[in-house]
């Protein structure tokens, strides 16, 4: 697997974000992507793309710092053809590493768990726990966080 970031991720990230938005719009009532533009999001510097050994983009996510020491995963997506092979777990590992590089000790996310149950189960399997609502995402039904095991936070 190869990981793309920065300018190298722009094209594949935009392509994957369009697929993500279309799939979530089909599965989550009222989802409109918050007016997001995949081409703009792909170029904001937060996108990470994971590719197969042949270079085919298979999944993506964004990691950003939302408060001092708190990171957030957004727009996590795995292409249907790559699901069930552990790529979702690999993306979470990549997100944790990116959050640690940002100096974060906590990683959060929101999800429409009732409409995206496979994503919700993945997050729970990887150590995320339910927390109170921390944002105003109208499509979210669950808010989760994970404490990262970074230097100074190994208790």
The order of strands across the largest sheet is: 1-2-3-4-5-7-6
Strand content: 25-35%
Helix count equals 4
Proportion of helical residues: 25-40%
Uncertain residue segments: none
What is the CATH T-level topology?
Aminopeptidase
Distance between the termini: 32 Å
Describe the oligomeric state of these chains in a short phrase: single chain
Describe what you observe in this structure:
The chain is of the alpha+beta class. The protein has one domain (2-147): Aminopeptidase (3-Layer(aba) Sandwich). It is built from 4 helices and 7 strands, in the order βααβββαβαββ. The chain has a 7-stranded mixed beta sheet with strand order 1-2-3-4-5-7-6, with helices on both faces. β2 and β3 (57-67) form a beta hairpin. The termini are far apart. Pfam families: Acetyltransf_1. Residues 8-150 form the N-acetyltransferase domain. This is N-acetyltransferase domain-containing protein. Keywords: Acyltransferase, Transferase. One of its GO terms (molecular function) is acyltransferase activity, transferring groups other than amino-acyl groups.
Keywords:
7 strands; alpha+beta; single chain; Aminopeptidase
Describe the SSE topology.
Elements: E1 2-5, H1 10-27, H2 38-42, E2 47-51, E3 57-67, E4 70-78, H3 87-101, E5 106-111, H4 117-125, E6 129-130, E7 142-147
Parallel strand pairs: 4-5
Antiparallel strand pairs: 1-2, 2-3, 3-4, 5-7, 6-7
Give a quick precis of the structure.
It contains 4 helices and 7 strands, in the order E-H-H-E-E-E-H-E-H-E-E.
């Amino acid at each position: 697997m190869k990981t793309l970031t920065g300018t190298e991720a722009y094209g594949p990230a935009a392509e994957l974000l369009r697929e993500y938005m279309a799939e979530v719009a089909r599965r989550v009532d009222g989802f409109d992507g918050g007016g997001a533009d995949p081409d703009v999001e792909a170029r904001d510097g937060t996108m990470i793309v994971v590719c197969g050994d042949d270079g085919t983009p298979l999944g993506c996510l964004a990691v950003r710092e939302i408060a001092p020491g708190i990171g957030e995963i957004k727009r996590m997506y795995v292409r249907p053809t790559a699901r069930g092979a552990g790529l979702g777990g690999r993306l979470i590992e990549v997100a944790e590493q990116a959050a640690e590089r940002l100096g974060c000790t906590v990683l959060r996310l929101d999800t429409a768990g009732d409409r995206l149950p496979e994503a919700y189960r993945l997050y729970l399997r990887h150590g995320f726990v339910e927390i109170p609502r921390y944002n105003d995402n109208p499509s979210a039904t669950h808010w989760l966080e994970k404490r990262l095991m970074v230097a100074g936070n190994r208790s």
